[in-house]
Specification:
By secondary structure, the protein is α+β, with helices and mostly antiparallel strands. It is built from 17 helices and 14 strands. A four-stranded antiparallel sheet has the order 10-13-9-14, covered by helices on one side. Strands 1-2 form a two-stranded antiparallel sheet. A hairpin with a 3-residue loop joins β1 and β2 (70-71). α9 runs antiparallel to α10 and α12 packs antiparallel against α13.
Length: 578
């Protein structure tokens, strides 16, 4: 197998993870900010590429590495392009972009776009490359100590998670996220559900697919690559499974969005040790991550009151720390075995290994665990210092947060001029130039001439509010009694019972609004009693929530096209019943 080709294919898979991050973030937030999130995920890669090519790559990967801490930029990509290591640059670029984009979700829905771009410049130019060089540059001081982070639980995910926490904390919560209990004076978290669980799920599956490249790109032999794929799949599945079970027991129902996060938590957890643990270790690492992510999401939200819409801090920060430390516990010496001969593989006279590290639980003592802890602490301190400075400077200069008016309106409109956000079908007709342009306007004098057609008959409007699933039966009953026109509206609301108690990511939904339909009918010839009795017969189950019927007197009805009024105006309008 040509591992040079696999190296680049895996880098392309990691690049595709940008799509996954965009979908997760967009799905777990409100529709009015979807375009803004897509733009941030696009631009943190594009801006990050420019910064990484000029500064970041040399700082991270330069051969001239000062005291094991930082590389000296040499701009070799411009001065000696033919001898430049193209593959290594692309590989490290896509990983750098991943660290940058993690922050987007935690700071979603209230961050200035320009300020986010400034942050991207700093993390891709300096913050990420410096500490990544400690880990992966062979001259880096952590690499010299034997620190093991095969694919980036700490160097990428923990850095992104810590940056996300600091950014979200300095930025402050979304408007309406927290309220103060009048009796206790305590701050209470309020759930703000995302607009599309489907998008969120799609993003998670894309990330899971890309993670096989993320973890497996640096594999040195085929058995190691197969082992990495195996441990990656096991940890992700164990994470999602344990999150499902944990939320099921805790909340009474399995939480879908948290289970999706659980799969990502397992993936983050296994990233550091994907090439150093066996199947049992992978399952344990993933399972613990699946529980940690639920606890961390709730602590960060309900105890620390840091608003993270997508759970980025818990998934990447907390589980990144766990995954890095877990290497010191579960790392195991694993030889690379030839499946045909059953013997350890040899290349260029040297034995091949899947893993040469040995953790505490496999007789390696506490040395590796100590090195892992030192690495976590060092990288965390560096990231905290740099990101506090970065976000504070941005806040004090150009400003970090969008205005309250812009946040309420939605960043799609405020930052990008998209009045309909990402969903043009919901755009007001007058805002969509071209719609209605082909409609032929008939002069009023050429319309059907009518005299006063009012018959003096009483007109009544009947409004029915009920469950959406009862509509089909109701419409069939209307046809049977001669109702020819209705207006149906999707509405939300609650009665005295305030609906059932639901939670979103462990947070109770504040007075949940239940989906209903509102059906309006205006009748004159059909007796009101007939309509009301028909509706009652169709909707009645004897349970709470069957629906309500409201009856109103209508003073007049006027048909705009013809000028007909009263009874005659009702004969072919959408709201009329006859």
């Amino acid at each position: 197998m040509d591992f040079g080709i696999w190296f680049l294919l895996a880098a392309a898979m990691v690049f595709f993870m940008q799509c996954g991050f965009a979908m997760v973030e967009a799905g777990f937030t409100r529709a009015k900010n979807s375009a803004n999130i897509i733009m941030k995920n696009l631009m943190d890669f594009c801006v990050g590429t420019v910064c990484f090519v000029f500064i970041g790559f040399s700082i991270m990967c330069a051969q001239d590495y000062v005291f094991g801490i930082i590389g000296i930029p040499n701009l070799g990509i411009f001065t000696d392009f033919a001898k430049f290591d193209f593959s290594n640059f692309v590989f490290n670029l896509v990983f750098c972009a991943t660290a940058a984009t993690i922050v987007s979700g935690a700071m979603a829905e209230r961050t200035k776009f320009a300020s986010y771009l400034i942050y991207t410049v700093f993390i891709t130019s300096v913050v990420y490359p410096v500490q990544a060089g400690w880990v992966w540059n062979e001259s880096g001081w952590l690499a010299q100590l034997g620190f093991t982070d095969f694919a980036g639980s700490s160097a990428i995910h923990m850095v992104g998670g810590i940056s996300a926490f600091i950014g979200a904390a300095i930025l402050g919560p979304r408007i309406g996220k927290y309220k103060t209990d009048k009796k206790t004076g305590k701050k209470i978290s309020r759930a703000i559900p995302g607009h599309s669980l489907t998008l969120g799920a799609l993003g998670c599956f894309i990330l899971w697919f890309g993670w096989f490249g993320f973890n497996g790109a640096a594999a040195e032999n085929l058995p190691q690559l197969g082992s990495i794929f195996l441990t990656t799949a096991l940890a992700a599945a164990a994470g999602a499974f344990m999150t499902m079970v944990f939320t099921w027991v805790k909340n009474g129902k399995p939480d879908v969005s948290m289970s999706l996060n659980g799969s990502l938590a397992g993936l983050v957890g296994i990233t550091a040790g994907c090439a150093n643990v066996d199947a049992l270790g992978a399952l344990i690492i993933g399972a613990v991550a699946g529980i940690l992510v639920v606890i961390a999401v709730e602590v960060i939200d309900m105890k620390l009151h840091v608003d993270d819409p997508v759970g980025a801090v818990a998934v990447h920060g907390v589980c990144g720390i766990w995954g890095t430390l877990a290497v010191g516990l579960f790392a195991k010496i694993i030889p690379a075995i030839d499946p045909e001969t059953g013997l350890q593989m040899i290349e260029d006279g040297e034995l091949l290994w899947i893993s040469e590290a040995q953790g505490l639980f496999y007789g390696g003592g506490a040395k590796l665990l100590g090195v892992q802890a030192l690495g976590v602490l060092s990288i965390a301190v560096w990231t905290i210092i740099m990101m506090v400075i970065t976000f504070t400077v941005i806040k004090k200069t150009v400003g970090l947060r969008a205005s309250a008016e812009e946040e309420i309106r939605g960043l799609d409109a405020a930052e990008h001029g998209m009045q309909a956000g990402s969903y043009a079908d919901f755009m007001p007709i007058e805002a969509n130039s071209g719609i209605g342009a082909a409609v032929k306007v008939v002069p009023r004098e050429k319309a059907v001439a009518v005299s006063d057609t009012s018959t003096g008959k009483k007109m009544t409007k009947v409004t029915i509010i009920t469950k959406p699933e009862r509509f089909a039966l109701l419409k069939e009953a209307f046809d049977q009694i001669g109702i020819t026109g209705i207006t149906v509206t999707n509405v939300l609301g609650y009665g005295v019972q305030r609906g059932h108690t639901h939670t979103y990511r462990g947070v109770p939904l504040d007075e949940p609004l239940l989906p209903k339909i509102q059906i309006d009918v205006v009748i004159s010839k059909i007796p009101v009693e007939t309509l009301v009795e028909t509706v009652k017969e169709v909707l009645y189950t004897g349970n709470i929530g069957d629906g309500k019927i409201f009856v109103y007197d209508v003073e007049n009805a006027i048909k705009v096209r013809t000028g007909e009024e009263g009874y005659d105006a009702l004969q072919d309008t959408a709201i009329s019943g006859e």
